[in-house]
Specification:
heterodimer; A: about 250 residues; alpha+beta; Immunoglobulin-like; 4-stranded antiparallel sheet; 6 helices; globular; disordered C terminus; B: about 300 residues; 11 helices; about 70% helix
Chain lengths: ~250, ~300
């Protein structure tokens, strides 16, 4: 006990200029829906995120999926005129989905170091790439992911709803999850900034879950590949012969 | 609207678009005796299917189209089973050798470039030769008697013909109406197998010209026999892809095969109404079209320098 008091006193004396950074306020997020099922006729889903925040804050809402390693072939110029497959390139720790909406441009929200710490902005996904040419490929990666609909960023992409009540404002963001977004657990985060400092923070989860039939087929393909392949061949031969017979009997009927 | 979710591809695609693509490829399969993988796989990639899944699922649906087409052609007596088996055995031997060639190329980092250049050169050679040959056939009168002065001219057999005749194990292939050495289809099967493995395709579009020009088989028997051989090749590829790479999407294959089996039947009936030269000129146009698209892909600057690994 005495030891603890001594440490506290020493800390205050040694670090007179140190300011305690206040903990950011907690914000409750409302996710609609919080869970979506990937069934046979699933074609994507819209996730609506809303929250009550202090009206003076700049807001960023970010949704990310689990990270993975991505392997690509790299096109290279050969013989001066031909673009052909060349070497391979690997990107590490790239989320399967990254969607970001803010009330202002990123550089107006917080300093670069703060943005990097919170993972806000595509640049924070950039790994230590071996050389400059691979750095250019990072821009290609972002373009590719944006074209697939799994990456998106929009400044002024946060909607302000209704009027302020006691300094509080309701905000909302609607994000589209395309059908190619993997069935997994996604992290939904809200950050509120005041004068470049993180002042409010909220967190939630959104789950995309495979329906029974889809899960069954997917598991069969992954865990019992040989059986799955055999069944796929039997079904294909059966369908082919059936159609052949149908056309054949049709011919005889005429 | 009308989207169907594909569990292995991990994406949703319009149901009618898939049925239509299957139908078109099935029609080509029934008409020309090709699997259609060289055409369907790039189309599937374009609509958002990962390349590895597109190639593997395509093989699965070709099994259905080839079964359907083989039944239709067999009913008309257009499948030379003896020839098909010899080509198939050669194809398996050649395919295995081709996979080893690819391994060496991969180790040197030249595989991708080698595949694309081989593909373009093969398509250009086959397509151009087929086009001009069938054009000659279409322009020529149906019965051709070459008379110079009063005497009929007898051509000396070509070096190729003399070489073929000198091979041992001369065998009658009654369905095809030819007598050649059993070694010839076996060796040609090896050649096609090597090329097919290097290029990552079933090999139908190489096998068909080989049967027409090197084995001198009649076009209608070529189509049926090619389908018979493709059926077994694709059964093998489907099971291997499903067990080793887990990339066969059965739902995708199912929708495609619903379209392709019907298309194959229509194609098989249509092929009987067309002359062999008409069939050949149509196929050569498709081969040259695919070659042109590939050349443009090689020459035009790409929108992105990254490409997903796998696929044709």
């Amino acid at each position: 006990m005495a030891h603890g008091i001594f440490l506290a006193v020493v800390t205050c004396c040694v670090l007179p200029g140190a300011q305690t950074i206040p903990e950011p306020d907690s914000v409750d997020l409302i996710l609609q829906p919080a869970l979506a099922e990937v069934g046979l006729f699933y074609g994507g889903v819209d996730l609506a995120i809303s929250a009550e925040v202090e009206a003076s804050l700049e807001i960023a809402v970010m949704v990310t999926g689990p990270t993975t390693e991505l392997h690509f072939g790299k096109k290279e110029k050969r013989w001066g005129v031909l673009w052909a497959p060349g070497g391979d390139v690997t990107f590490e720790n790239i989320p399967c989905l990254y969607q970001l909406r803010t009330t202002a441009e990123l550089d107006q929200l917080a300093p670069e170091s703060e943005l990097a710490e919170l993972g806000l902005g595509y640049e924070t996904l950039r790994d230590d790439l071996a050389d400059e040419s691979e750095g250019n490929l990072f821009a290609d990666l972002i373009r590719l992911k944006e074209s697939e609909g799994v990456f998106s960023y929009a400044a002024q992409g946060v909607e302000i709803e209704g009027d302020q009540v006691a300094g509080q404002q309701r905000i909302s963001v609607t994000l589209h999850f395309p059908a190619n977004a993997p069935a997994t657990l996604y992290s939904v985060q809200l950050f509120g900034f005041r004068d470049g400092q993180l002042a409010a923070r909220g967190q939630g989860n959104f789950e995309l879950r495979q329906a029974t039939l889809i899960h069954f087929l997917s598991s069969l393909a992954q865990e019992h590949g040989s059986l799955y392949g055999f069944l796929a061949v039997v079904a294909a031969v059966g369908a082919g012969l059936l159609v052949g017979l149908m056309f054949g009997s049709d011919k005889k009927a005429h | 609207m009308f989207q169907i979710y594909l569990p292995v591809a991990g994406n949703a695609v319009n149901l009618f678009l898939l049925l239509g693509l299957g139908g078109i490829v099935g029609l080509l399969s029934g008409l020309f005796g090709v699997g259609g993988g060289f055409l369907l796989t790039p189309l599937l990639i374009m609509i958002g299917i990962p390349p590895t899944v597109a190639a593997a699922s395509d093989s699965n649906q070709i099994v259905a189209a080839a079964s359907s087409g083989t039944v239709a052609h067999s009913r008309s007596g257009n499948v030379d089973y003896k020839m098909g088996v010899l080509l198939l055995v050669g194809g398996v031997v050649g395919g295995t050798a081709g996979v080893q060639v690819i391994k060496v190329l991969l180790a040197t980092g030249q595989a991708g470039f080698a595949i694309q250049v081989t593909y373009v050169v093969m398509l250009a050679l086959i397509g151009t030769y087929m086009f001009f040959d069938s054009l000659r056939g279409l322009r020529a009168p149906k019965v051709r008697v070459e008379i110079r002065g009063e005497r009929e001219v007898f051509h000396r057999p070509s070096l190729y013909a003399r070489l073929v005749q000198s091979l041992p194990y001369q065998t009658d292939f009654q369905r095809s109406g030819i007598r050649v050495s059993a070694l010839l289809p076996f060796m040609l099967g090896i050649l096609v197998g090597v090329l097919a493995a290097i290029m990552g395709v079933g090999g139908g579009f190489i096998m068909v010209p080989v049967m027409v020009y090197l084995l001198r088989m009649p076009m209608h028997v070529v189509v049926g026999t090619s389908l018979f051989q493709i059926l077994f090749t694709c059964v093998n590829v489907t099971i291997l892809q499903a067990s080793l790479n887990h990339t066969v999407d059965f739902l995708l294959a199912l929708v495609l095969l619903l379209g392709s089996t019907s298309g194959a039947q229509i194609g098989a009936r249509l092929s009987k109404k067309l002359r062999a030269d008409q069939l050949k000129i149509m196929m050569s146009c498709i081969i040259l079209g695919v070659m042109l698209v590939m050349v443009l892909g090689l020459v035009l600057p790409p929108t992105t320098l990254l490409s997903y690994k796998g696929g044709h």
